[in-house]
Design brief:
Elements (H helix, E strand, L loop, with lengths): L1 H16 L5 H12 L4 H51 L2 E3 L9 E5 L9 E3 L2 H13 L3 H10 L8 H6 L5 E7 L13 H6 L9 E8 L6 H10 L15 E6 L2 E7 L4 E3 L3 H8 L18 E6 L10 E5 L1 H10 L10 E6 L7 E7 L2 E2 L1 H5 L2 H4 L2 H17 L6 H19 L3 E4 L16 E4 L1 H10 L4 H17 L4 H17 L4 H4 L4 H14 L1
Antiparallel strand pairs: 1-2, 2-3, 4-5, 4-6, 6-7, 7-8, 9-10, 9-11, 11-12, 12-13, 14-15
Helix pairs in contact: 1-2, 1-3, 3-4, 3-5, 4-5, 15-17, 15-19, 16-17
Length: about 525
């Protein structure tokens, strides 16, 4: 009976601590028992009740706090998911106990303890702080940028390591859904004794980051074992984990052993194959190879086919042709560009240098160009060319203004007629030293092309021919005869222009002019 009453008393104390009133049942039960007990016996039972109830209250309080925090985490992530991920990438965790509406407290992770806690009034303030962190250009900036704007990046941090983008490391854990589970947390001696082979296919990358100059394997172990980064979501570093490092292009992999680290000679190569990392192209003849990229020099940067243009050149030939194009011509700003032919989504013609101003910032803002060795090599060579031939390049801001002005001028000139050059029925020209046959498309011909344009140049020509047949069957009159003449000349000129130049025509410009003229009439 005594044990039952002690249990009832403990239950009453625990429930009361959490706001549950059981007195209507507990009091009569306890009172009936205690009325026939000696004080000594009751005191002994009270000690048991107090000790047991206290332990249970502490344990339940801790468990309830964990449940409540998990609930808060879920609710917070549902509402501010990206910002929560980003602040963790910045090295801070949301403090659920200290934070309240209008007062957000962020606790630092192990690598930011010196900086201390951060406090904000709103999530908008946190967003501004994160943007400032990105602008600082530090190692943390990259992580925050990836968390806030993942669409800006084509490769994971682990892939960046294998691609040689700076000194980096990656931490891999055994994937428990693979056969590797058999050696989870086993030291290397046991692995060898059991004849187990460490295979990268049985691992997954759980974290990757920048490797600092004097950072060693022991340093990484200490960080990820004691107080890991806020955005690290795996177990603390343990035996059977693998660390991959790339320092100055030297790729190494190490098995975390009971004491120290064991080198894994084949692991990094295996992992690279799994990720399908394409090795950088070596021994490329950037000077003369036109297979993947060729260059052109044009009188007009906005519309390369307007005016004088020389294409399918090497870069030195394009620069030479560029120098020979008079800058005073009014079709637009002269340029050197490239025609990428590497099978990627970024194939096609793109300006490389406009009036002595290299388009490096714009090109590097596009992942497909930033990661392309051909484009990057071309940028470097043009930079060297400008340093040697044009040391006093005009101010970039003034150059940009000039580009905008020239775009307006080029649109006005289109009303007077557009001049195109093509190499049809001639041998391929190099360096622009030989004369190239000109093809003039007048404004009325461009307007006709715009009216009848189809998906391809060939379809447009066919449509024009069909319209021509209909008009030739009608009775002759001055207006009809004039239209037949315009369509005939348009078809003849379109047949002489290559497809890639046809598609660069701004035909909507002429359609808009036609609509405006009709509206004004």
């Amino acid at each position: 009976m005594t044990k039952e009453v002690e249990a009832e008393s403990v239950a009453y104390c625990v429930c009361s601590s959490f706001g549950l009133d059981t007195s209507d049942y507990s009091f009569p039960y306890i009172a009936g028992w205690s009325s026939s007990r000696e004080m000594k016996e009751m005191k002994a039972s009270m000690d048991v009740i107090r000790k047991t109830a206290g332990e249970m209250i502490d344990q339940l309080t801790e468990e309830l706090e964990i449940i409540l925090e998990e609930k808060q985490k879920t609710e917070l992530h549902d509402k501010y998911g990206i910002l929560v991920d980003a602040l963790e990438a910045a090295g801070y965790r949301y403090d659920y106990r200290e934070s309240e509406p209008g007062h957000i407290v962020l606790a630092p992770d192990g690598t930011h303890e010196i900086a201390g806690y951060l406090q904000f009034e709103s999530w908008g303030d946190i967003k501004d702080w994160l943007e400032d962190t990105i602008a600082e250009g530090t190692d943390i900036s990259e992580r925050v940028d990836r968390a806030l704007y993942p669409f800006k990046f084509d490769y994971t941090l682990e892939e960046e390591m294998f691609r040689g983008n700076g000194d980096r490391y990656a931490i891999c854990h055994v994937d428990e859904d693979t056969p590797g589970k058999q050696h989870l947390f086993m030291n290397m001696a046991m692995v060898k004794e059991d004849g187990i082979t460490i295979d990268a296919a049985n691992y997954k990358c759980v974290y990757s980051g920048r490797l600092h100059e004097n950072e060693k394997l022991d340093d990484l172990y200490a960080v990820f074992n004691d107080n890991p980064p806020a955005d690290y979501k795996a177990h603390s570093m343990s035996v059977s984990d693998v660390i991959i490092t790339n320092r100055g292009g030297d790729m190494q992999a190490y098995y975390v052993d009971r004491f120290g680290f064991a080198e894994l000679p084949d692991f990094a190569v295996q992992r690279e194959k799994i990720l399908d990392i394409v090795p950088e192209i070596e021994n490329v003849d950037y000077e003369n190879d036109l297979t993947c990229i060729s260059f052109y020099a044009a009188e007009c940067a906005e519309f390369p086919v307007m005016g004088e243009v020389h294409y399918d050149l090497t870069l030195p030939e394009a620069l030479e042709a560029y120098e020979k194009i008079p800058s005073e011509r009014m079709h637009g700003l002269k340029c050197v560009g490239f025609d990428l032919k590497d099978g990627s989504d970024y194939e096609g013609m793109q300006s490389l240098m406009i009036e002595g101003k290299i388009q490096k910032e714009f090109l590097n803002s596009i992942p497909g160009f930033r990661e392309n060795s051909y484009v990057q090599n071309a940028i470097s060579r043009v930079e060297k060319y400008l340093e040697e031939r044009h040391p006093n390049v005009e101010n970039p801001l003034e150059s940009n203004k000039k580009v905008d002005n020239e775009k307006n001028i080029s649109k006005e000139k289109k009303r007077e007629g557009a001049e195109y050059t093509d190499e049809t029925n001639t041998e391929k020209k190099k360096g622009g030293n030989e004369p190239m046959r000109n093809v003039n498309l007048e404004e009325n011909e461009l307007t006709i092309t715009a009216i009848f344009q189809q998906h391809t140049k060939e379809e447009t020509i066919q449509t024009l021919k069909e319209a021509l047949e209909v008009m030739e069957q009608e009775e002759s009159d001055p207006e009809n005869d004039e239209m037949i003449e315009i369509i005939n000349s348009t078809v003849g000129k379109l047949q002489q222009i290559e497809d890639k130049y046809y598609y660069s025509l701004d035909l909507n410009y002429y359609l808009n002019n036609l609509e405006n003229d009709a509206y004004e009439a």
